[in-house]
Amino acid sequence: NARDIWDTTAPYNLVSTMRASFWVLGPLLAREHKARVSLPGGCAIGTRPVDLHLDGLKALGAQIDIEEGYAVAHAPKGGLVGAHIKFPLVSVGATHQVLMAAVLARGETVIENAAAEPEIGDVARCLVKMGAKIDGIDSHTLTIQGVSQLEGAVHRVVPDRIEAGTYAMAVAATGGDVTLLGARAEHFQRRVGGGVQRLCRHLEPRECGGD
């Protein structure tokens, strides 16, 4: 329940535990018109800059300064303003960041060269349940009509395709059978399905009576 948020600072000791914590910058900025979020540290897959995140938010009118390892952001008077943003390269994190900020920005925002991973589509669908207006979900071009506020919603988060794909590859490599309840084969087949098919008899989606 985010109704009573009053602190707009996300400290390093929290952000450093999971890189995606930096993504709170956009939502805080959109809702509270200010935010102070620690820059994320390195992670298991190396150093990944957040320039695209900051550039996207600046395109929406944010003023952002880096102070002692923190991104200190302020929205213009009246809040963020919609913009046409084209990422120079596809970024899952930057797409999440700008999408969550743009739903509360005034006017229309178009995000070109957006990432289209299942998790982004899932976040977009959750935002729509909350009152956001988003077209182009699951595509590389998202069009957002800003709204003045969002409401609460009930949403089941999409299953983790990395975890499901890891189990599928492990069983394919070692033999035997496995049933992954709740996994969505269409979310990971494109990336690992070919390898699984070469190593095992079949990869068969089945209805299991659950999400």
For the largest beta-sheet, the strand count, sense and barrel status come to: 4 strands, mixed
> In percent terms, what proportion of residues is strand?
15-25%
Global structural class: alpha/beta
Report mean pLDDT, rounded to a whole number: 85
The topology string of helices and strands comes to EHHEHEEEHEHEEHH
CATH homology-level superfamily of the largest domain: Enolpyruvate transferase domain
CATH class of the largest domain: Alpha Beta
Helical content class: 25-40%
Helical segment tally? Answer: 7
Number of separate structural domains: 2
Report the count of strand segments. Answer: 8
Please name the defining characteristics of this protein.
211 residues; alpha/beta; UDP-n-acetylglucosamine1-carboxyvinyl-transferase, Chain; 2 domains; four-stranded mixed β-sheet; 7 helices
